[in-house]
Every structure is written in structure tokens, then in C-alpha cells.
């Protein structure tokens, strides 16, 4: 049995994690928190004020906390877990370089896993893009991502991860051009990055390759948030057995 905690419990993904956890017999939810929470219930769990997280972790045996919040809170919650000796899975996006360093500092004390996308399909797409980038090395590449109208960060964490993978596969960084306007022809080797925000779209990523009079497009579309929630719970169960360190979702799927 893996005992988990959930931060951002009343948020969209926190709610999806708690709902998905009710169907997982190998998972017990021992702690659920949200900033300013005042006794709300989500998927049958009482949600406590996030200010009480250190006390709750001390009082209730917890293996791993699952976090989908914002960069500032994720760093704070990771530090609280490091202090309490509790593992930390985060799907939060939008960290700057200092934020990623802060997560790595917490990972020196507890197992910590960060993934910008917990779907198996995006992981497979990332692997495939590496191979295609190597094979079609002189093709133009453009990235388009589309999300719901409440999303804070742009481009999405997933888009950045896929672009980093393309850079790795091509052995050098591409300049990233964020949208185009006016007299702005495509420069050799750049990747155009296009962001759309509308309605309740769960998350779509399209990578386009064009050259040699042909066009290839690779599209991933999440049809529900349960995809991300269940991947994060898989990661939590896996992480509960690990030593301190910084882990990736690909290691869970291997
Ligand atoms: N890796 C993946 O597979 C996925 C990652 N995500 C990422 O997860 C994160 C959350 O997304 P989503 O659930 O849609 O967002 P929501 O806005 O619906 O929920 C965010 C939650 O985090 C809390 N929160 C936000 N900022 C702070 C803060 N500074 N301090 C304390 N609590 C805070 C919110 O509290 P309050 O209610 O008080 O605002 C809320 O509970 C985003 O970074 C998103 O990109 C999303 C889906 C999949
Ligand atoms: O905010 C979201 O909703 C999502 N965020 C993640 C990201 O930024 O890549 C993952 C997914 O696309 C949904």
C-alpha cells in the first residue's frame, strides 16, 4: 500500500488525482491540502489548509506527496517533504532555472520526480521525435500547443520538454521563435512555437516537419485529465520504493 498526500487538492488536477485515487486499491490518501482550505471535501477527502502540511506529514504516515499547483508552492511543498522525509511527485510546470535548482536541492534528501506530462503517449512521442529529428535533419520544424483558457504558463511545460528533446537529438539548440508578426521570414534552423488558449481543451501538442516537398505532423491530444492523474499516481507508487534523487517519468515506464 502506498500512502499519498495531495497538494492543490481543490484545484483541477488535484481533484482529478483524488478522484482517480479512489479507484486505486494500492493507494491510500492520507493527506489533502490546499492554500486557505477550510474543511472542504474532494472525492471524499477532507482538505486541510496547506499551512498545516508539515504538521500533517509528521502526524500521518505518508510515502509520497503528489503536487499539481504552481511553481512557488511546488518548491515550498517539495522543501516541506524533504524536511519530513517524504517523497515528492510534481507535475507543476512553469519553473524557471532557480526553481528547478530548488527541486534538485530537495531531491538530495528524498526521492523526487518531476514530469511536465504524465501521459504515456507524450513520452512515446518524445522518443519518436528524437529519431525523426535525426533522420530528417534538414527539415523545418514548428511546434503548436493548445490548452484551456485558464492555463497560466506559456508555452506549456510539455512543449518545452519536447523542444529540449529535439535539441538533444540534433546536437545543438534551435532558436525558438514565439509566433511571428510583420516582416519576419523564417530563419534557417529556427523552430516556430505557437500557443493557443481556448475553452476547456485538456492539452494538444503538434510537431510539424516540412522539407523535400512533404509534410509530417505528429499530434498528441489528451482526452481527459485522468490520463495525467493516473500517470502521476503510477509515479507515486514507483517513487515510494526509491532512494533520494531526482527521477523522470520515463524511468517509471521503463
Ligand atoms: N505534468 C502533467 O501531466 C500536468 C501538469 N499540469 C500542471 O499542473 C499545474 C496545475 O494545473 P491545474 O490543476 O489545471 O491548475 P488549477 O489552477 O486548477 O489548480 C492549481 C492549484 O494549485 C494551487 N496553487 C496555485 N498557485 C499556488 C500558490 N502560489 N500557492 C499555493 N497554492 C497554489 C491552487 O490553489 P487556489 O485554489 O487557492 O488557487 C489550486 O489548488 C499547472 O502547472 C499545470 O501546467 C496540469 C495537467 C497535467
Ligand atoms: O495546464 C495544463 O492543463 C497542462 N499542463 C501541462 C503542460 O504545461 O505541459 C501538461 C498538459 O498538457 C496539461
From TrEMBL:
<comment type="function">
    <text>Catalyzes the conversion of 4-hydroxy-tetrahydrodipicolinate (HTPA) to tetrahydrodipicolinate.</text>
</comment>
<feature type="binding site">
    <location>
        <begin position="115"/>
        <end position="118"/>
    </location>
    <ligand>
        <name>NAD(+)</name>
    </ligand>
</feature>
<keyword id="KW-0520">NAD</keyword>
<feature type="domain" description="Dihydrodipicolinate reductase N-terminal">
    <location>
        <begin position="3"/>
        <end position="118"/>
    </location>
</feature>
<dbReference type="GO" id="GO:0016726">
    <property type="term" value="F:oxidoreductase activity, acting on CH or CH2 groups, NAD or NADP as acceptor"/>
</dbReference>
<dbReference type="Pfam" id="PF01113">
    <property type="entry name" value="DapB_N"/>
</dbReference>
<feature type="domain" description="Dihydrodipicolinate reductase C-terminal">
    <location>
        <begin position="121"/>
        <end position="253"/>
    </location>
</feature>
<dbReference type="InterPro" id="IPR036291">
    <property type="entry name" value="NAD(P)-bd_dom_sf"/>
</dbReference>
<keyword id="KW-0521">NADP</keyword>
<keyword id="KW-0220">Diaminopimelate biosynthesis</keyword>
<dbReference type="GO" id="GO:0050661">
    <property type="term" value="F:NADP binding"/>
</dbReference>
<dbReference type="InterPro" id="IPR000846">
    <property type="entry name" value="DapB_N"/>
</dbReference>
<dbReference type="GO" id="GO:0019877">
    <property type="term" value="P:diaminopimelate biosynthetic process"/>
</dbReference>
<dbReference type="GO" id="GO:0005737">
    <property type="term" value="C:cytoplasm"/>
</dbReference>
<comment type="pathway">
    <text>Amino-acid biosynthesis; L-lysine biosynthesis via DAP pathway; (S)-tetrahydrodipicolinate from L-aspartate: step 4/4.</text>
</comment>
<keyword id="KW-0457">Lysine biosynthesis</keyword>
<keyword id="KW-0963">Cytoplasm</keyword>
<dbReference type="GO" id="GO:0051287">
    <property type="term" value="F:NAD binding"/>
</dbReference>
<comment type="subunit">
    <text>Homotetramer.</text>
</comment>
<feature type="binding site">
    <location>
        <begin position="8"/>
        <end position="13"/>
    </location>
    <ligand>
        <name>NAD(+)</name>
    </ligand>
</feature>
<keyword id="KW-0028">Amino-acid biosynthesis</keyword>
<feature type="binding site">
    <location>
        <position position="40"/>
    </location>
    <ligand>
        <name>NAD(+)</name>
    </ligand>
</feature>
<keyword id="KW-0560">Oxidoreductase</keyword>
<feature type="binding site">
    <location>
        <begin position="157"/>
        <end position="158"/>
    </location>
    <ligand>
        <name>(S)-2,3,4,5-tetrahydrodipicolinate</name>
    </ligand>
</feature>
<feature type="binding site">
    <location>
        <begin position="91"/>
        <end position="93"/>
    </location>
    <ligand>
        <name>NAD(+)</name>
    </ligand>
</feature>
<feature type="compositionally biased region" description="Basic and acidic residues">
    <location>
        <begin position="171"/>
        <end position="189"/>
    </location>
</feature>
<dbReference type="InterPro" id="IPR023940">
    <property type="entry name" value="DHDPR_bac"/>
</dbReference>
<feature type="binding site">
    <location>
        <position position="148"/>
    </location>
    <ligand>
        <name>(S)-2,3,4,5-tetrahydrodipicolinate</name>
    </ligand>
</feature>
<dbReference type="GO" id="GO:0008839">
    <property type="term" value="F:4-hydroxy-tetrahydrodipicolinate reductase"/>
</dbReference>
<dbReference type="GO" id="GO:0009089">
    <property type="term" value="P:lysine biosynthetic process via diaminopimelate"/>
</dbReference>
<feature type="active site" description="Proton donor">
    <location>
        <position position="151"/>
    </location>
</feature>
<feature type="region of interest" description="Disordered">
    <location>
        <begin position="166"/>
        <end position="189"/>
    </location>
</feature>
<dbReference type="Pfam" id="PF05173">
    <property type="entry name" value="DapB_C"/>
</dbReference>
<feature type="active site" description="Proton donor/acceptor">
    <location>
        <position position="147"/>
    </location>
</feature>
<feature type="binding site">
    <location>
        <position position="41"/>
    </location>
    <ligand>
        <name>NADP(+)</name>
    </ligand>
</feature>
<comment type="similarity">
    <text>Belongs to the DapB family.</text>
</comment>
<dbReference type="InterPro" id="IPR022663">
    <property type="entry name" value="DapB_C"/>
</dbReference>
<protein>
    <recommendedName>
        <fullName>4-hydroxy-tetrahydrodipicolinate reductase</fullName>
        <ecNumber>1.17.1.8</ecNumber>
    </recommendedName>
</protein>
